[in-house]
Design goal:
Mean pLDDT: 75
Number of domains: 3
Low-confidence stretches: 135-139, 181-189, 261-265
Distance between the termini: 65 Å
Order of helices and strands: HEEHHHHHHHHHH
Strand order of the largest sheet: 1-2
Largest sheet: 2 strands, parallel
């Protein structure tokens, strides 16, 4: 890496000299290497560490020294102490938790340059959808969002895409159970019930991922969801669950979908 950095520095200065022929002095460049991989970083930061020191060249020796910033060397606790745009980026790549990142991006929107937060949100969306940034989507990085609500909608769209696989898996489980029920009472009725079962299971899985504290209340929410017999209502609840800022807010949105006696308890 030290050798590559040296090549980059010379190339950049050569290009600047070629483009600005009348320039007397070339600008200084501070070389930084940002590493976001999972393996331990072991590359030397100085070119001299790669050379065989047969003769001491003194002031005639060529040195390249870059500053390594290793994301996986920062613990989550350290990053949470001073949360900003950079620490949020490090959290996303080294300690990935999509729900924590969504909330962090939205809170940063009020405290920082919205355009910078939007660029970071755009990067997060691409990472969520593709685990990389394809060349054809590069233009998305230049987009600036007009409001916090638009940024939130963009991030939620990414989460919905990510959770689509969970939903499909649940549907397959439900359809299988539906066919089993259908053998006794008709395949059509069984499939309909199977889809309801799948949707309820999906809601429970998303609930425990979105709000881990609900693990202790899983029986209560299972009972709630079992009372909802309309498939479209269950779909709408998934949207509410993904957007709800707190568990209490989701419970309030859940109440109208429950039978009157249950909702008023």
């Amino acid at each position: 890496m030290a050798l590559r950095v040296g090549q980059y520095l010379l190339s950049a200065k050569s290009d600047l000299q070629r483009l600005h022929k009348n320039t007397t002095f070339l600008p200084q460049i501070f070389p930084i290497v940002l590493y976001n991989g999972k393996e331990r970083w072991t590359a030397p930061a100085r070119l001299s560490e790669l050379e065989e020191n047969v003769v001491d060249l003194g002031e005639y020796g060529v040195e390249v020294h870059y500053l390594p910033i290793i994301e996986n060397s920062y613990s989550l606790e350290h990053l949470l102490k001073d949360v900003n745009l950079v620490s949020t980026l490090f959290m996303a790549e080294a300690h990935y938790d999509r729900h924590r990142l969504v909330q962090q991006l939205l809170s940063l929107y009020n405290e920082n340059d919205p355009a910078a937060v939007s660029a970071l949100g755009n990067w997060f969306r691409q990472m969520t959808l593709h685990k990389r940034i394809p060349a054809e989507d590069y233009e998305l990085l230049k987009r600036e969002y007009r409001s916090k609500e638009e940024l939130q909608a963009m991030i939620v769209e990414a989460i919905l895409k990510e959770e689509e696989k969970i939903l499909k898996e649940g549907m397959q489980i439900g359809e299988t159970r539906g066919v089993q029920i259908g053998e006794a009472r008709g395949v059509q009725i069984g499939e309909a019930r199977g889809k309801l079962v799948a949707q309820r299971q999906t809601l429970l899985r998303l609930l425990t991922k979105r709000f881990p504290e609900t693990l202790e209340q899983i029986e209560q929410f299972t009972a709630y969801f079992d009372q909802i017999a309309n498939f479209d209502d269950l779909v709408q609840l998934i949207d509410y669950l993904l957007l709800a800022p707190t568990l209490g807010a989701f419970e309030e949105q859940l109440q109208p979908f429950l039978p009157t006696s249950e909702a008023t308890q």
